[in-house]
Design a protein that fits this description.
disordered N terminus; 456 residues; 39% helix; three-stranded antiparallel beta sheet; alpha/beta; 11% strand
Length: 456
């Protein structure tokens, strides 16, 4: 997840690129009809090049186009590139692309700026889409300030704790179904060294608002902290924020992976797969990779809810979703594509043609009642659904927030602020400065944002 720095007039705000927590899953490829305009029986779709999207691209002509007569011109780019291109086209309302992949971070901001086509009217006329089947947290996260829907999820995720069941059994350790962070720290200490070279836990330390700050912000939330209070006062120097950050830094320094300050999603995935760590707190989407047929740790893993302290739940919420540009010349055809690409029928198609593990899950309740999917994802599907359904993007902590978001603050400035703060905290993980020093600098950065929002 990612984007700009200083505040500009809303109509001209152009969102730049930054890294995201899903970026490690992406590979570089480009395909599509870059400069062609949509019209007639065609639409232009700009999307990120992750495996589930490229699978959709392969299935479109033989299924969607064959059924509707609508030809889809795809432009498929790496995440940072696609975000930059989307922000330029949508901010300028150039209308080159009818549909684009956006996350639940951007969609409310884009909707506020008037860049997106609302979808309530389409949903009302398309009962087969079954909007109520979409998991409630997903619907809420893709809703604008006016209460209207501006996006439909392609797939979604939360976060949870993954651990080696065999290692825990050998050490006589028991993982609670809903652990506290204090319990996790104790288990990490006992699992540390359970096998030669194995560390107790992997936690992201790589700078980036979508890397280190994603898991750390969920820890801050459940420790009682917040980036900003309801009046937009910066709170990075609060006792709760400091306690949470110090806990995280101390845990990863004492029992975390080697080179933690440069470890993100990809590095922790690699460490877990290779048996270098006994636990990992991260995205629920990682479970499918760990349970893949060729994974060395398949069948050896257990899953527990995101650890908590003061909140009933603490998992984050993220989705890649489809947004229709307000300036689209073919919004009706664009909706038909969105309806197909996020509908129940598409999941069935993927399950039957590519295999149920490849289904873009995490968005529909019906997915989790499908016998084929439940069997293929038996190790983690219930825990994933529970994590998503318990996510509270509008109320993730113990006090009111001025903007929505669990692992981010839903304002354009957060990408720049979050990245700069993450650099300070990563330096603390590396031992180059204290947590207190890192947060003192971070508070100064956050106060600049406070001044722009106070009194609203």
């Amino acid at each position: 997840m990612r984007i700009p720095s200083r505040r500009r007039p809303r109509a001209t705000l152009v969102m730049a690129t930054v890294g995201t927590l899903l970026a490690p899953l992406l590979s570089g490829c480009w395909a599509g009809a870059g400069g062609t305009g949509s019209g007639g029986d065609s639409i232009n779709v700009l999307m990120v090049n992750n495996p589930q999207m490229t699978e959709l691209q392969k299935l479109t002509a033989a299924h969607f186009t064959k059924e509707t007569g609508i030809r889809v011109n795809f432009t498929v780019l790496p995440e940072n590139d696609v975000r930059d291109k989307i922000s330029q086209d949508f901010a300028n309302q150039a209308g080159q692309y009818d549909v684009a992949t956006l996350s639940n971070y951007e969609i409310p901001i884009y909707a506020r700026n008037g860049w997106l086509h609302e979808m309530n009217g389409y949903v009302a006329k398309d009962p087969s889409y079954d909007e109520q089947d979409v998991l409630k947290p997903m619907r809420q996260s893709l809703t604008g300030d006016d209460g209207k829907l501006y996006g439909q999820p392609f797939y979604g995720e939360s976060s949870f704790l993954m651990y080696r069941k065999d290692v825990f059994a050998a050490k006589g350790l028991t993982m609670p179904a809903h652990p506290t962070w204090q319990q996790v720290a104790g288990l990490a200490a006992k699992a540390d060294g359970a096998k030669p070279g194995m560390k107790g836990i992997c936690l992201r330390g790589l700078p980036g608002w979508g890397e280190l700050m994603a898991p750390l912000t969920t820890v801050v939330n459940t420790f009682g902290g917040t980036w900003f209070d309801k009046k937009w006062k910066a709170r990075l120097d609060s006792p709760e924020f400091e306690k949470a950050t110090k806990f995280y830094v101390d845990l990863v320094r004492a029992h975390g992976e080697s080179g933690a300050a440069q470890s993100g999603f990809a590095e922790c995935l690699n460490d877990m797969t290779q048996g270098k760590v006994a636990m990992w707190y991260d995205a629920t989407s990682a479970a499918g990779l760990l349970e893949a047929a060729d994974s060395p740790v398949r069948g050896r893993l257990g899953y527990a809810a995101a650890p908590v302290v003061e909140t009933p739940a603490s998992g984050w919420l993220y989705t890649w979703a489809w947004g229709i540009q307000k300036a689209s010349r073919n919004p009706d055809k664009a909706w038909k594509f969105v309806s197909w690409a996020s509908g129940k029928g598409y999941e069935q198609l993927v399950g039957e043609t590519s295999g149920w593990p490849d289904v873009p899950a995490g968005k529909r309740a019906s997915t989790y009642t499908n016998a084929d999917y439940r069997k293929s994802a038996a190790a983690f599907q219930e825990m994933t659904k529970e994590a998503i359904e318990s996510a509270r993007p509008s109320d993730p902590g113990v006090q009111p927030r001025p903007a929505p978001g669990i692992q981010f603050v839903g304002i354009p400035e957060f990408t720049d602020l979050g990245t700069k703060v993450s650099q300070e905290i990563s330096a603390a993980i590396a031992g180059r400065q204290s947590v207190a020093s890192a947060l003192k600098k971070s508070q100064t950065l956050a106060e600049k944002i406070s001044k722009e929002y106070e009194g609203r």
